[in-house]
Amino acid sequence: MIRTKTTFILGAGASAELHMPGPVEVLERIAQALDFSRTGTNQLTRDTAAILRHIGKLAERMNRTEEALYRAGQRIHQAAKIGRSIEQVIEQNNDDPLVEAFGKLAIAVFTLQAESRSSLRATPQPNAALPLQTGDYWLIELGKLLTAGLPRSKVEAGLGDISIVSFNYDRSVEHFLPFALATAYGMTLQEAQRIVATRLRFFHPYGLVGRLPWQSGELPDVDWGNEQPWNMSALSGQLRTFDQAMADRKGVADLRACVAQAKRIVFLGFDFSPRSLDLLIDASLSHNPEIVVSVNGMSGPNLAAAIRLLKRKTGNERDDRLMICEGRCLDVLKDYSLMLET
């Protein structure tokens, strides 16, 4: 049971531990898929076909021709050669709204593919309670942290101090936690979904590929891992660039207030990009929150830069309040479980 107001901040590394592709791999796959020189030949890839399936509806929504979209896709294909992520490529070519629309369509297609092919399944396997392939995952440790020592009668109150900020487009935490609650407390999945929907706070600063069908709201919905939804064009329209995220003043204010009120902040698989930190924190935090950070795979120079940036942004002046873990997200939640529960 987590007894302190805690905010978990998830980056691409958290999704990678569920066997979803990282930003570099996603960019490479999108660049290959948008090589339209093979269109109409027997060399057309499955990825290209998956994107082309939705070109007509996207062109209709944008009130442009399919040929114009193809040109935008070719521009992404070229720019990807010197890009670090598809988001960077979109922002570098912000003079063309079709590049943004086509790029977001590709992100939505690959995000739903990633969900479908990840270790997190739509439903549990026979004789299993949780929708995970065999293995040890940070999602299970998160479920343990939320439920350990928390009686059923206090579940809803106990989850009220937990917030989750995801810079990823997938819905892994939202999808998994109802199964964890249903398993821990013997409640129905529908009841667990209601509790997660009403008690846990979720933020997706860059948007997400649709809400899950049981979640309330006005966003278009799609089942976990549905690779061929009928509303792919509408789903892609919910994704946001950094500038679009910053333009949502209420959303940014709510997100920053959530981070500022947290007494503990746990970064899992976060890349510490300055712009993402700008979304989270606008001024130094005055109350020196405890900060736990996973830095698995970061080089020494990048790690040093990330720590300096984090200290400056949070106003942290006490080294004992900043805990660095060089392990995976799984290792962080295991190694710091006692601290997180106290």
CATH architecture of the largest domain: 3-Layer(aba) Sandwich
The poorly predicted ranges are none
Order of helices and strands: EHHHHHHHHHEHHEHHHEHEHEHH
CATH topology of the largest domain: Rossmann fold
What Rg, in angstroms, do the CA atoms define? Answer: 20 Å
Q: What proportion of the residues form beta strands (DSSP E)?
A: 5-15%
Strand order of the largest sheet: 3-2-1-4-5-6
Number of helices: 18
Question: What's the multimeric state?
Answer: single chain
From the N-terminal CA to the C-terminal CA, the straight-line distance is 8 Å
Instruction: Name the CATH class of the largest domain.
Output: Alpha Beta
Class derived from helix and strand content: alpha/beta
Task: Give an overview of the whole structure.
By secondary structure, this protein is an alpha/beta fold. The protein has 2 domains: 6-20 and 121-206 and 241-341, Rossmann fold, CATH 3.40.50; 23-117, no CATH class. The chain is 50% helix and 8% strand. It has a 6-stranded parallel β-sheet, with helices on both faces. Strand 5 (290-294), helix 16 and strand 6 form a beta-alpha-beta unit. It is globular. The chain starts with 5 loop residues before the first strand and ends with a helix. The mean pLDDT is 92.
